[in-house]
Amino acid sequence: MADYYGASLSLYLIFLLITIGLASFRFKFTIQTERLIYLILLFNKPIIKKVIYPNQVNQLKLIRVGWAKKAAIIKVEKGINIRLSVLEPQGAYEHLIGFAKKHDITIFKTKDY
């Protein structure tokens, strides 16, 4: 079979495995009263868990992505900023704004938000 298809079969299998691997990533974001929890899941197993307390947040930036979708960027003191572009339900953005107001976190909204 490898003689007939040559290297294209192995390239197809590698492409297929990479696609399945990337499609199995999930992101979970939880807003609690005193902290934010950001999880990255691979095959529904947590591989990265980041707990963010209000004193670690510098700014909450609210922007638009595309024409109709909202997004939020949580700027933290140390580490990588968290970009949330698809929060479900849409009311989750209001909960995030409420969290920021409760803990006196600076909120920056773009003019088209």
Q: Structural class of the helices, strands and pairings?
A: alpha+beta
Per DSSP E runs of 2 or more residues, the count of β-strands stands at 7
Strand order of the largest sheet: 6-5-4-7
Radius of gyration: 19 Å
Write the CATH homologous superfamily. Answer: Pleckstrin-homology domain (PH domain)/Phosphotyrosine-binding domain (PTB)
Assign a percent range to the helix content: 25-40%
The CATH architecture can be named as: Roll
Element string (H = helix, E = strand): HHEEEEEEHE
Terminal CA distance reads 56 Å
Percentage beta strand: 35-45%
Shape: elongated
Question: What is the number of independent domains?
Answer: 1
The main sheet comes to:
4 strands, mixed
Average per-residue pLDDT, rounded, comes to 85
Low-confidence stretches: none
CATH class: Mainly Beta
User: What is CATH's topology name?
Assistant: PH-domain like
Number of helices: 3
Structure description:
- The model has no long low-confidence stretch (mean pLDDT 85).
- The protein is an alpha+beta fold and 113 residues long.
- The strands form 2 sheets. A 4-stranded mixed β-sheet has the order 6-5-4-7, with helices on one face. Strands 1-2-3 form a 3-stranded antiparallel β-sheet.
- It contains 3 helices and 7 strands; from the N terminus they run H-H-E-E-E-E-E-E-H-E.
- Strand 2 and strand 3 (45-52) form a beta hairpin.
- It has a single domain (2-109), classed as Pleckstrin-homology domain (PH domain)/Phosphotyrosine-binding domain (PTB) (PH-domain like), CATH 2.30.29.
